[in-house]
């Protein structure tokens, strides 16, 4: 493996990162984190149509650095992300995964009021 290939596999690059507020209501406490370099991706029209109702056009995939949270933290359905425009997105249980490099969480969110299950 060349040096260029080795380095490219160690880094992820995203356009338009922003700082968001992540609110994680838990059984005995509510945890609040400021997450830097978060990115949101829109689902394509093809993805929304192919999902057969699983996704909506306003849903987003958020990429959140694992190092922005304490060790052992895992996003859960009902957590809230407030973006730089003060729009609230709620984590659903549809997609909560740690990426292949184990450096970032990818979560599916729905824009709106109140918690999403």
Brief rundown of the structure:
With 117 residues, the protein is mainly beta. It has two helices and six strands, in the order αββαββββ.
Your description of this structure?
By secondary structure, this protein is mainly beta. Helix content is 10%, strand content 42%. It has helices spanning 3-8, 45-50; strands at 18-25, 30-42, 60-65, 80-82, 88-98, 104-111. A 6-stranded antiparallel β-barrel has the order 1-2-3-6-5-4. It starts with a helix and ends in a 6-residue tail after the last strand. The mean pLDDT is 85.
Describe the protein's topology:
Layout: H1 3-8, E1 18-25, E2 30-42, H2 45-50, E3 60-65, E4 80-82, E5 88-98, E6 104-111
Antiparallel strand pairs: 1-2, 1-4, 2-3, 3-6, 4-5, 5-6
Strand content: 35-45%
Main sheet summary? 6 strands, antiparallel, barrel
Q: Got a strand count?
A: 6
- Give the overall silhouette: globular
Number of helices: 2
Structural class from helices and strands? mainly beta
Radius of gyration: 15 Å
Strand order of the largest sheet: 1-2-3-6-5-4
- Uncertain segments are none
CA-CA gap between termini: 44 Å
User: What is the helix/strand order?
Assistant: HEEHEEEE
Q: How much helix, percentage-wise, in residues?
A: 10-25%
Round the mean pLDDT to the nearest integer and report it: 85
Record keyword descriptors for this entry.
mainly beta; 2 helices; six-stranded antiparallel barrel; 10% helix; 117 residues; globular
